[in-house]
Amino acid sequence: MAAARPHRWLRWPKNAAPHGRAPRLAYGADYNPEQWPREVWDEDVRLMREAGVNIVSLGVFSWARIQPGEDEWDFAWLDEVMDLLHANGVAVDLATATASPPPWLTALHPEILPVTATGETVWPGARQHWRPTSPVFRSYALRLAEAIARRYADHPALAAWHVSNELGCHNVYDYSDDAAAAFRTWLRARYGGIEELNTAWGTAFWSQSYTGFDQVLPPRLAASHPNPTQQLDFKRFSSDALKEYLRAERDLLQEVTPDVPITTNFMVMGESRGMNYADWAGEVDFVSNDHYVRPGAQALDELSFSANLTGNIAGGRPWFLMEHSTSAVNWQPVNRAKAPGEMARDSLLHVAHGADAVCFFQWRQSAAGAEKYHSAMVPHAGSDSAVFRSVADLGARLTRMAPLAGSRRKPAPVAIVFDWESWWACEQDSHPTSLLRYRQEALDWYSALLARGVRADVVPLGTPLDGYGMAVAPILHLVREETAKELVRYTEAGGHLVTTYFSGVVDENDHAWLGGYPGPLRELLGIRIEEFAPLLPDERVRLDDGSVGTLWSDDLTVTDPQVEVLASYADGPRAGQAAITRRATGAGSAAYVSTRLGSQGLAGVLPRLLERAGVSGELPPQLRGRVEVAVRADDGAEYWFAVNRTAEPVDIADLGGELLDPAGAAEQDGARILPPRGAAVLRRPIS
User: Fold this and answer.
1) Of the residues 166, 302, 421, 638, which is catalytic?
2) CA-CA distance, 246 to 268, in Å (whole number)?
3) Which residue out of 249, 302, 323, 427 is catalytically annotated?
4) Is 146 one of the annotated active-site residues of the chain?
5) pTM
6) φ, ψ (nearest 5 deg) of residue 398
7) Do 548 and 540 touch, CB atoms closer than 8 A?
8) How many CA atoms lie within 13 A of 682 on its CB side?
9) What CATH code is assigned to 26-406?
10) 1, 25, 144, 278: most buried, per Cβ within 10 A?
11) Per residue in 484-517, pLDDT tens?
């Protein structure tokens, strides 16, 4: 994980609503006034005041409007919008407008268009149709960013700079000649010489040995599976190429306006795997994230997981929720509206995990374009709507929650270790199974802990684990020697490690560790696996503790008499063999789970793992599984967020504390009722 820049938060204007420069939670949306006639703008700012909006992201997709031709500029409309927002107490997170190049640029320079692995050109007509490594695109983009920066450097509404938008959302992997040239440069820097590359890539296999870097290409369409290390390095390079582009814009902005903080919106959610955000976090002054809920049984858990991971990528410091939705989105197979209470609950769950800003895409729902069915703060129905009334209610609640602004997340007793490189490597082709999903396994552990009322931090690999009673490293597939040594140190010092199937299998070059799996973790775990035993989609294996495994099993041999077998296979070809093990080492222990149990199946083994680690839930038994708790703290108090995971009212009186926002729960006759899908914040003295 990159070393972090000093954390710098929003530069609030003196007149920013509602309390000038006093601490507050930011609230707002992407604002796209260029989509609307001038007379709508006055209504916009009136409604913003009514809703409690104090910040907007502006100009995200405005390149064609700002620069209608190569040597034509139109800032008059943006000047007016900036002045109008400032006059109404709304601060601006001003975008560099570089996310989507205008038609005149792609017509003039079609060589900036990305190319797919199969050689197809990605044509204009949507967005993000540019190559991250294109020097031509970069020169035009930086020219635009500099023009915007110099024009608005001293504008009193300017609170932060917003670099591009969702970098890599649609163009993370480009296989063009520009990308090939940049990939070779990146490989020279990584390996030094061509023989070192040949060794790292194992090119003796399939007669792939190179005699010069000029022969190396991105992993384009090939006759069979491309070299796996080439694929892994291309993923690393692609994340780095976008990071270098982020740096280019950031450095320009920093030179022009050294006192204005700079951010860009990450996408820590779902299967957005292409960008190593733990590595990117040190490049911005504060972390921002976009998150959209996907339907399913673990939808709320996934939101919490993503917000939690974002908070830990941010190092526990406040971060900015740049985008989420008031209701339905437009890009899922079926786009369902949110139920009453869900919008506020979802928003506050992000705040619970460290967000000091709650913003939506977008302010006013578009009347035209690809996202016209995407919900907004002002829907097609207008301000006389349930959505807008909910928006205004949430704005009022966030205003009352101002005292918690600037507080930091309180560390949890359990860590779930998340590693982008293991994610990339374990899901490549020609593996024991194509059904494995790294993030799903991590989410299952998180869900299981939530169900037991145990807080967990989702932390990037490399985060110090001291202080965590238990650390779960699911599918830690790619393990460097130094990582293995650190895990040994953690356990011997009293930590309790849990890892799973397909861990410790390859090194940083995606070469298999020899001598049996799990490679450098064999001695620590006291086990040895000679061969994997993945399961077919309809196969199940029963364990003698009553749980059922899917996806994977291992032909596992216990090699150390100190190993305790927590569960064995009860049927199938491995009946009687160990399935879940634990080995005491030093003052701690190391456990291994050899099959996928799912969030419910983990309920069988989790109590024993937690008990050995000395970890217990902070929730009363009657609230476990029904309420999620997250905790933030400052020097004076702890702020306990209680989030109702159910569609039924829940009494949270046993949590104590005082309600920071009276709208969060109803108090009557000694009860404190959290409504269905509700969220409340309780202020408690430091314990």
Assistant:
1) 166
2) 17
3) 323
4) no
5) 0.97
6) -65, -35
7) yes
8) 23
9) 3.20.20.80
10) 25
11) 999 999 999 999 999 999 999 999 999 999 999 9
